[in-house]
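Milestone M4 deliverable, item 7.
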Amino acid sequence: VAMPDGEPMKVDVKLHNHFDPWQVEPLLKIIPDEYMDWEKGMDLDGRVAIAASATGDLGEGRMPLIRASATISDGRFFYPEAVPYKVKSIDADLEAELDLNEGGVSRATVNKLSARTRGTDVKVSGTVEDLLGDMLIDAHLTAHLPLEDAMEMVPDSMNLAADGDADIDLQAKFRLSDLDPIALDKTAASGKITIDKLDVTYDSINVISPKVDITLQLPAVEHEGKVGDVHLVSTRLAVEKGNVNATIDNPDINMGLNDITREQIAAAFDIKIGDAEANIDSMMVSIEGLDLKGSARLDSTQQNIVRQYNPDVDIDLHGAVLYMPELPDAIRLSQ
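Output delivered:
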């Protein structure tokens, strides 16, 4: 530290942890209680190694630039108010740059952050700009996620249940202020989700598939006026709602969706399917290829299935056979 007459102090300080990584839990216990309100109800531990430096002027309204890096290993975290299950095997490689001067920009880099909980494995990397303000987060996430783990984070009001195993690869950019409440219209995101052994129920609709590939894009590119694009491809879907059940081969579903976190589903869609078979009570329809293009808006207050979804659809039917017990012969429709 240099202290020239009449000028701010010149600071050049470096801190290195040359010892074994520190255990977090004992360190937290030596901090006075008045500074630990944030830690109440939280179980937090791990091994941390740090390095830091401060360089620049100190005084006359100036602060030195602070750079820091940390590695975390064997970490654990449990805070039931935020996450309903324990997070373990936390490993991280982090860097931060703090400029506390007026107009200064502070940022952090997550070179690696990985963790496990139940059957879920998560890896994150990315950057955080405006670290001391309304953070701008640019993150890449990969994860293996049993859907039953995710269901504990879904509000009961969504009336959603799901089972299966998802592999996720997502890139997203958003402000911290856009998470509460969630503002999908201010989020940029893209990625792919592959789900094996899908079994999902939304409202009164149940969908089962051996494998589904879902591609996501926010904001929507293909569907003007929608929040996001969703492209779903599968080898086979089984769908059931009340007395209606159907099996669909090789569905290719391209949709534009509204903000489903704020209102019921409204979608524009372009659907192509191969062979399909549907049963409605004692009537059966076998379809030999079908293209659908149009829109639908869910109104769960309605009892009639058509009024519930308010469809506006153009249909290109390649061919179909209709079986009804009241008819002596099947009815064949051809293009």
